[in-house]
Design a protein that fits this description.
By secondary structure, the protein is α+β, with helices and mostly antiparallel strands. The chain is built from two helices and six strands.
């Protein structure tokens, strides 16, 4: 698994939408436009994009935790300018 790209988002709302990102789960599967969110208690979660008011994908909790960890690491790896200039 690897994060292909991560793009910081403006902050606001009850939960923080930290970034949009693309992930390669295997050589056969890539997902684009996932959302990395952080709640006020510091918990981070991911969400798939929506179409017609419904999420386009859902994830088993173990896979969601693994993707969240990878996306969080990629987000933390951005320098301060990357995180605030978008």
């Amino acid at each position: 698994m690897k994060i292909l790209s991560i793009r910081p988002l403006p902050q606001g709302g009850g939960e923080k939408n930290l970034a949009r990102f693309d992930v390669e789960l295997s050589e056969h599967l890539r997902l684009y436009g996932l959302l990395l969110r952080q709640w006020p208690d510091g918990t981070r979660r991911i969400a798939a994009p929506q179409a017609n008011g419904r999420h386009m994908a859902t994830f088993h909790s173990a896979l969601a935790a693994e993707i969240t960890d990878h996306a969080s690491s990629a987000f933390e790896g951005l320098n301060a300018n990357d995180r605030t200039s978008h």
